[in-house]
Amino acid sequence: SDVRGSVKVLGVDVARFGSDYSTTTRREGFAVYPQKRYQSMDLMALSAQIAQEIIEFKPDAVFVDEGGMGAGVVDRLKQLGHMDVIGVNFASGADNKNRFTNKRAEMHWKAKEWLENGGMLPDDPNLKQELAVIEYEYDEANRIKIEKKDKIKEQLGRSPDLADGFVLTFAYNVIPKTPYKTTLTANTKYNPYERR
Q1: Which residues make beta-bridge pairs with 28?
Q2: Global pTM value
Q3: I want to staple 174 with a disulfide (CB 3.0 to 4.6 A). Which of 53, 61, 91, 155 is the partner?
Q4: CA of 41: how far to CAs of 59, 95, 160, 162, in Å?
Q5: What mean pLDDT value characterizes the chain?
Q6: Which residues of 15-37 are buried (b: 16+ CB within 10 A; e: fewer)?
Q7: Where are any strands of DSSP class E within 3-135?
Q8: What's CA 17's distance to the chain center, in Å?
């Protein structure tokens, strides 16, 4: 499908522990590309890899998990001149505080809606498994709440690094930097509004 003119976002989940993976997720319009995983990499090396991805993919925004080790990655990428990098804290308040308990719940919900509206994931059983085990409930104020990450880790036997990287692409609304101008009229005589 044609993704030109669609928003391009890079989500970066930074590993907290040795066995976890740092992941990068490229989302363009209704497509997510196969994710990249990095293990046992120091922050400078990881930042260099992400900087390379930014240069290749040219995203409209880069959302980096800034909890734990991620704050250093955010700082380093900005130091390298990538000013579209935005740190995201999963535990921070949601934009819509009446509907979601925190940013994490809001991102997961936006990702769920994106999938329901035709979003396509790469054919990766690990990502699908991670997304499938995550459960939500409502709190006393009737806000959407996602189960704790430790519980998810327990069920999976690993950290949901791919799922986290994917949902990070929904941290904030993004406007494409360079709007794609369609030249439909020049290419075709078809007019959908024409009376038949």
Answers
A1: 8, 31
A2: 0.86
A3: 61
A4: 23, 32, 18, 17
A5: 89
A6: beeeebbbbbbbbbbeebeebbe
A7: 8-13, 21-28, 31-32, 36-39, 61-65, 85-88
A8: 21
Q: What is the pLDDT of residues 128-166, one digit of tens each?
A: 999 999 999 999 999 999 998 889 999 999 989 999 999
Please work out, in degrees rounded to the nearest 5, the angle formed at the alpha carbon of residue 168 by the alpha carbons of 166 and 174: 110
User: Cα–chain-centroid distance for residue 67?
Assistant: 15
For the chain, helix, strand, coil in percent to 5 are: 35, 20, 45
Could you give phi then psi for residue 38, rounded to 5 degrees? -130, 130
What CA–CA distances, in Å, run from 138 to 100, 102, 135, 143?
A: 9, 12, 11, 5
Tens digit of each residue's pLDDT (9 = 90 or more) over 63-113: 999 988 899 999 999 999 999 999 999 999 999 999 999 999 999 999 999
Alpha carbon distance 14, 161 (integer Å)? 8
Do 101 and 144 form a contact (C-beta atoms < 8 A)? yes
Q: Give percent above pLDDT 90 in the chain.
A: 74
